[in-house]
């Protein structure tokens, strides 16, 4: 254990993000316990958010030191959907940064094992960009015995660090957030021939038109559709004289596309990033939060964003 370097060369000034995949309880304990004890030795707050089995193992091996943890919480209670979970997480991180020079977190996102929790991989990817200047080490725990192959593949592609030879090392499979997001967003196909297309020059006048386009069996979602679409139109009309609003059904999913001929987005990840509390609401973040899914195509000739609303 003395040869283990739990955080390698991390100096506590920026975000470090490791995806630790293990297959035995022994591997888990011999990775996490030194990580926790190193934090104590550096007077860093150490937070642990994990499933019941991991918490039990750590409690048994930490003994009295368990009480020194700044947080020891059940991950099963944390997940509220991707956007809401990230917003709560973001709030906690900003609170820590206001009071703490640097800290470390060992977290087990147990919800990745469920179908409706897999979108979290997108937020893991975006964290590498939006939290780059946050001074903490995030050790993400993934049990290969309970996670499917596609989730483990996403872990490798969304974490810049992995564990090797007793120290964190660069992950060979890691992808930049923009690349990863494009690969996991809904497949981008041409608009269907029967799609409704409107040319919009005022986002306010388009609200009634958007409302009328929502199918009868989606009326329960009309508020979400109108507000999300309005936010995207506001963005488009700040960079272009008009936007196109296109809607269609894709199976049982209602699709809304807002496109413009502006200069393109500076960062395609911004819809996944919680707004800075000092800046007020961000249109793309709000739209992403209201829709069930989203996809982006952006370049120097314009931007098209699709929002997906299920039953």
**Strand residue content:** 15-25%
Rg result: 22 Å
| Largest sheet strand order | 1-5-4-2-3
- What is the annotated CATH architecture of the largest domain? 3-Layer(aba) Sandwich
| Alpha-carbon distance between the two ends | 52 Å
- The overall pLDDT, averaged over residues, is 92
Number of domains: 2
Classified in CATH, the superfamily of the largest domain is: P-loop containing nucleotide triphosphate hydrolases
Secondary-structure class: alpha/beta
Shape: elongated
Quickly name the level 1 CATH class of the largest domain: Alpha Beta
Order of helices and strands: EHEHEHEHEHEEHEHHEEHEE
Which regions have little confidence, pLDDT < 50, spanning 5+ residues? none
Report the helical percentage: 25-40%
Main sheet: strands, sense, barrel: 5 strands, parallel
Query: Number of DSSP strands?
Result: 12
Number of helices: 9
CATH topology of the largest domain: Rossmann fold
């Amino acid at each position: 254990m003395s040869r283990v370097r739990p955080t390698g060369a991390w100096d506590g000034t920026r975000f470090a993000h490791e995806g630790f995949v293990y297959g035995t309880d022994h591997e888990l304990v011999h990775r996490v316990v030194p990580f926790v004890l190193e934090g104590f030795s550096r007077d860093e707050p150490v937070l642990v958010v994990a499933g019941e089995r991991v918490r039990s193992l750590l409690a048994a091996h930490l003994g009295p030191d368990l009480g020194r943890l700044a947080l020891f919480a059940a991950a099963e209670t944390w997940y509220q959907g991707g956007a809401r979970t990230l917003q709560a997480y973001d709030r906690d991180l900003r609170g820590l940064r206001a009071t703490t020079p640097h800290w470390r977190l060992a977290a087990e996102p147990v919800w990745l094992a469920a179908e409706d929790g897999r979108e979290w991989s997108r937020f893991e990817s975006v964290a590498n960009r939006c939290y780059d200047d946050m001074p903490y080490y995030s050790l993400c725990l993934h049990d290969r015995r309970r996670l499917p192959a596609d989730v483990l593949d996403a872990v490798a592609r969304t974490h810049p660090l992995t564990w090797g030879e007793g120290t964190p090392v660069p992950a060979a499979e890691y992808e930049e957030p923009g690349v990863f997001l494009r690969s996991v967003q809904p497949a981008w196909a041409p608009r269907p021939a029967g799609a409704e297309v409107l040319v919009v020059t005022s986002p306010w006048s388009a609200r009634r038109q958007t409302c009328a386009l929502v199918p009868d069996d989606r009326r329960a979602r009309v508020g979400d559709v109108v507000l999300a679409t309005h936010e995207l139109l506001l963005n488009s009309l700040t960079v272009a004289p008009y936007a196109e609003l296109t809607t269609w059904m894709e199976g049982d999913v209602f699709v809304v596309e807002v496109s413009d001929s502006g200069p393109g987005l500076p960062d395609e990840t911004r819809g996944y990033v919680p707004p800075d509390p000092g800046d007020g609401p961000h249109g793309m973040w709000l739209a992403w939060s209201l829709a069930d899914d989203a996809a982006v195509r952006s370049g120097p000739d314009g931007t098209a964003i699709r929002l997906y609303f299920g039953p």
